[in-house]
Amino acid sequence: MHTDQIFAQGEAYERAGNTNGARAMFAQAAKAGHTGALTALARNLLVQQPFDIANGIAMLKAAADRGSAEATQLCAVLAAQDEELAEHWNVALDYLVRAARQGSAGARRQLALLADAE
Question: Which of these CATH numbers, 1.25.40, 1.20.120, 3.40.50, 2.60.120, describes 1-66?
Fold first, then answer.
């Protein structure tokens, strides 16, 4: 089975509420290099029980480093909320700029809003 098909099966499992099945499919596709699957697995670990915050964040950062605009934008959101992270607003802004450069329309809109607020 091709990684896109495995990823699609993971998405179908996730929509059906089968968290374990979704995670298994996402992990299989991610191990084969599918960045979208890595992003989906990270997001799933962060929002679906049982949570695995540490691994979810690590995978999100890895997906961002692989060029996932979605993962990079999510890193910006998490950094902005992490008051224990030194310079968290600067880190968030850096991720937001990266996400915009990676093609995220949402990140571009957020940056435009920030520019208008100044």
Answer: 1.25.40
